[in-house]
């Protein structure tokens, strides 16, 4: 039996998802495959860009957060996927070597009316470099209920 | 000089971003690194899941769309990154071998007040398997203006 069910995702609860150091090689390899814009691939193009240096694809940052969420929460939960979300933002660029702190804040939770064995949880994804927010998303997670 | 500037992103314009066949090995490798939930990794776990078979991570689907967007639009544009978006959804699961059609619809466009050399474009990302929508997002792209 999984440790975390719908009932454990109470609004206001914050899960620490640990710290991640951004690996330069993987950051560039990701961009090469999924987001090959010059400022994500090349040091000089990064310097000349709005970011001021070689910057991670926002989708890579998102992937790093997702992995931390799986490791710290979903792997211990009755997780049933996600239909999507309503906010995603990258308030500051992420750079190679950055140390990022990831967390998850539970923003809301309700039982499904059509499928009572399932609960819908509004999830707040956050990632910081020091005091600077670098990633933020609000999306919905579906979880099995313990007392179906 | 890039072919596409802010002025070319007129509301209502639709860009065809081509077709993509979902590669099973890459789909699983992506999930193993960024979203290692059992239904994204293992055929049997997929069958027993809400998806009915091994399904792609939504972030992989997102990455496939992004790559198509770079290849067909951003690589030809004065693209200045994105601060984020306000909607992301996966209305249906994506499976290995799926043939997906990607497109971009321009939903809105306005010049930046604080930085007149820059325009903000509201972008509608869409991806379909046949008539079934599998990915949808609304986000903001920043582009250089031609007549700064």
TrEMBL record, chains A, B:
Looking up InterPro entries in the UniProt record yields: HotDog_dom_sf, MaoC-like_dom, MCH/BMMD
Q: Which family does it belong to?
A: Belongs to the enoyl-CoA hydratase/isomerase family.
Query: Which source organism?
Result: Pseudonocardia hispaniensis
Full protein name: MaoC family dehydratase
Query: Per its UniProt record, what Gene3D superfamilies does this chain match?
Result: Hotdog Thioesterase (3.10.129.10)
Residue ranges of the MaoC-like domain? 11-115
């Amino acid at each position: 039996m999984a440790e975390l069910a719908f009932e454990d995702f109470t609004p206001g609860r914050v899960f620490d998802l640990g710290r991640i150091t951004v690996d330069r090689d993987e950051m560039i390899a990701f961009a090469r495959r999924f987001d090959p814009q010059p400022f994500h691939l090349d040091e000089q193009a990064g310097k000349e860009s709005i970011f001021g240096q070689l910057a991670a694809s926002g989708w890579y940052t998102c992937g790093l957060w997702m992995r931390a969420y799986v490791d710290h929460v979903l792997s211990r939960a009755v997780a049933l996927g996600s239909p999507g979300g309503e906010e995603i933002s990258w308030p500051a660029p992420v750079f190679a070597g950055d140390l990022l702190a990831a967390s998850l804040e539970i923003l809301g939770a309700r039982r499904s009316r059509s499928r009572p064995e399932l609960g819908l949880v509004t999830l707040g994804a956050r990632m910081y470099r020091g005091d600077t927010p670098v990633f933020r998303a609000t999306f919905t997670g579906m979880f099995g209920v313990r007392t179906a």
